Give the backbone structure.
Amino acid sequence: MSGPIENPAGELRIRCLSDLHGRKEYLDPHGADILVVAGDIAPLRRLDTWAKRAQCEWMAEDFRSIVAAHPGCEFVFTPGNHDFWGLEPAMNPNSSFWPKNAHLLLDSGCCVRGMTFWGSPIVPFIGSSRRWAFECGDSVQRRVFSGMPDGLDFLVTHTPPALPGSDIDCEGVLIGSGRPLHFGSAPLAEAIAEKKPRRAVCGHIHSGSHEPVMFCKTLCLNVSVLDAAYRPAWKPREFFQDSLLYDNHQICYNIRRGDGQDEPFGRVP
Ligand SMILES: [Fe+2]
């Protein structure tokens, strides 16, 4: 790995990732001013009430201690469909449970270091099982996503949007038909087109395309870090405050180099 990212203008550095699934090393900000996590934060070992209790303990001990150990970094995060802890009322965004530099987004927003964020954990139903956290249908998605403010600096959702011609939300192919399987949210895409956030980061679909996609005036990016087998596969993505221009995203390809690697969008060797 090469050296730190050049930042001669001293711009805010925003590090984005999702789907760490309890791998605490990903919560190290590596000197970033803001760490954004787009869901699936805690480990999940079982799907029952025990899982929620164990996750709450993990958030209380592991997550909070990491946040407290990095007081110079603001942690902005939303849960994902694996994060049953996010359903616990005592862990609401205004709760004293959270350290001052922790900003939980639950269909809500915050302004940190002059940057505006809004985030949501909700995802479309996955198959017919109805067993995951924050699953909901189109009408609820439409209502929730239409609540985001106009012109955000960062939209943070666990689900990817369903974007025309994009595989940002694609998880393999349907066996027998060869048809790609897309799991993105159409209501989220509608809301992005209307509200025009500068950047929209998401996760959820580990094997979705990690290439940036320009949609209307928004740069959309899948920032999940593990592959479909939950092995490390992608590096967190880093942005500077103003250099990521939505109308000239080629510049960001040249400037944004992840952890200083020459291939910012490549897989971890
Ligand atoms: Fe995940």
In short: Residues 19, 21, 40, 80, 82, 204, 206 surround fe (ii) ion (CB under 6 Å). The chain has one domain: 13-255. The first helix runs from residue 49 to 68.
